């Protein structure tokens, strides 16, 4: 029994520990962006690129291994090498060429050659090219994954907006219910008609219905955020999303136009792609250099090295060989022009990126400043609506205000408060879009 109680208590403690951890750590936007990059299907390509690089380098390393080549040849030729004197006359003079057999026009050769590369600049250049391509492709993947942050930011602040609307709607319902109780008391005292109660009840029901709609929309937003980040929507709902400090974001706005785009993954991509193009030039240069290898050739042929024997004999040849293919010089100029063309195209893409990003940043900064101005104006409007509502509540109690006018004033204040929340979230969205534009999150 004591063991059972102990296990039960342990389960309860673990459950509460889990709940405390979940509720105690709100999800912030940066952690969700990092999670989304790792969760996004394209992230799998990072391992594939690494594997492809390893295979490519392994393949290039095999070019340093000794090569073995077998060749055979059977041929018939119209003429062969012959001695430049009459063998019959030599025999009459008592000179005999023992073992001499004239060459046959049917000839056979079987060779096995083993060669070991000693100098091949093309292998080294190809390795550098493989590494440069890997780095640029990995950087290009980072650029693609970086775009996920835009989707996370949009969905994150959509969920925050809906959450703030739910909270404001709850306050609105509480305010309506409080006024419903006041109207009910006035109805009992004969100050107001029954239709005032009915109209206020309709407002409460409408607000409750709106609450259900907002919660459904929030659940959809959290599901989208969960699909992007891989974090369970239940955890997102339980822990909540962290609301950024609006004052800190205002400070960021004052410095936004001084920040550059050097931390953007696109800038790293342009740099690495330019390095890849330069390495491509090295590969082309290496094609025009000589290749040196040591070789051993084993053969069995008729005729063999001693062509006067006129029979099948084994032989071998060993040495060092230099090969220099001059045909690559014919296309060298064209290749250099192609490489220069690729470099110019890359520079154009970089300039376009810088221009478009700068234009977008200026638009975002102006929009953020405009939203701040709207926040200030809307705050003044809310203060005026609150003053009006306090006056209207007193008039309603005295029976000199219609219920329709009172409901209109309540709804006007609620709409102004909702508008204030909307502008705040829109401002935060603009700031974090600016941070995404700079890739600066502090």
Automatic annotation (TrEMBL):
<keyword id="KW-0812">Transmembrane</keyword>
<dbReference type="Pfam" id="PF02321">
    <property type="entry name" value="OEP"/>
</dbReference>
<dbReference type="GO" id="GO:0015288">
    <property type="term" value="F:porin activity"/>
</dbReference>
<keyword id="KW-1134">Transmembrane beta strand</keyword>
<keyword id="KW-0813">Transport</keyword>
<keyword id="KW-0472">Membrane</keyword>
<protein>
    <submittedName>
        <fullName>TolC family protein</fullName>
    </submittedName>
</protein>
<dbReference type="InterPro" id="IPR003423">
    <property type="entry name" value="OMP_efflux"/>
</dbReference>
<comment type="similarity">
    <text>Belongs to the outer membrane factor (OMF) (TC 1.B.17) family.</text>
</comment>
<dbReference type="InterPro" id="IPR051906">
    <property type="entry name" value="TolC-like"/>
</dbReference>
<dbReference type="GO" id="GO:0009279">
    <property type="term" value="C:cell outer membrane"/>
</dbReference>
<dbReference type="GO" id="GO:1990281">
    <property type="term" value="C:efflux pump complex"/>
</dbReference>
<dbReference type="GO" id="GO:0015562">
    <property type="term" value="F:efflux transmembrane transporter activity"/>
</dbReference>
<keyword id="KW-0998">Cell outer membrane</keyword>
């Amino acid at each position: 029994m004591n063991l059972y109680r102990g296990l039960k208590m342990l389960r309860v403690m673990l459950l509460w520990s889990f709940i405390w951890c979940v509720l105690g750590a709100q999800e912030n936007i940066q952690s969700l962006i990092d999670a989304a990059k790792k969760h996004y299907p394209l992230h799998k390509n990072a391992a594939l690129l690494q594997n492809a690089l390893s295979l490519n380098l392994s393949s290039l390393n095999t070019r340093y291994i000794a090569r073995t080549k077998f060749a055979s040849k059977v041929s018939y030729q119209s003429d062969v090498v012959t001695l430049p004197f009459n063998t019959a006359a030599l025999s009459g003079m008592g000179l005999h060429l023992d073992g001499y057999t004239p060459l046959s026009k049917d000839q056979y050769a079987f060779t096995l050659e083993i060669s070991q590369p000693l100098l091949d600049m093309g292998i080294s250049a190809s390795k550098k090219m493989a590494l440069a391509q890997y780095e640029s492709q990995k950087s290009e993947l980072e650029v693609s994954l970086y775009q996920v942050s835009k989707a996370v930011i949009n969905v994150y602040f959509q969920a925050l907006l809906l959450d703030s609307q739910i909270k404001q709607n709850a306050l609105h319902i509480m305010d309506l219910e409080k006024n419903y109780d006041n109207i009910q008391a006035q109805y009992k005292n004969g100050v107001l008609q029954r239709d005032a109660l009915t109209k206020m009840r309709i407002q409460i029901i409408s607000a409750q219905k709106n609450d259900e709609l907002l919660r459904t929309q929030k659940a959809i937003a959290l599901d989208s955020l969960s699909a992007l980040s891989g974090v369970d929507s239940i955890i997102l709902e339980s822990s909540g999303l962290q609301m950024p400090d609006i004052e800190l974001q205002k400070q960021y706005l004052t410095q936004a136009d001084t920040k550059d785009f050097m931390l953007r993954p696109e800038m790293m991509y342009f740099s690495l792609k330019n390095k890849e193009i330069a390495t491509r030039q090295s590969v082309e240069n290496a094609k025009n250099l000589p290749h040196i290898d040591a070789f051993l050739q084993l053969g069995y042929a008729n005729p063999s090295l001693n062509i006067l024997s006129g029979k099948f004999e084994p032989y071998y040849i060993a040495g060092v060989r230099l090969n220099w293919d001059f045909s690559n010089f014919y296309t060298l100029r064209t290749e250099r022009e192609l490489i220069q063309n690729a470099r110019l195209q890359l520079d154009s893409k970089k300039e376009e990126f810088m221009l478009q990003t700068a234009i977008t940043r200026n638009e975002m900064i102006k929009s953020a400043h405009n939203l701040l101005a709207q926040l200030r104006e809307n705050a003044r409007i809310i203060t005026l609506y609150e003053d009006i509502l306090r006056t209207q509540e007193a008039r309603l109690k005295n029976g000199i205000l219609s219920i329709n006018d009172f409901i209109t004033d309540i709804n006007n204040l609620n709409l102004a408060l909702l508008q204030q929340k909307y502008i705040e979230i829109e401002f935060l969205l603009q700031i974090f879009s600016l941070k995404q534009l700079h890739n600066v999150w502090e």
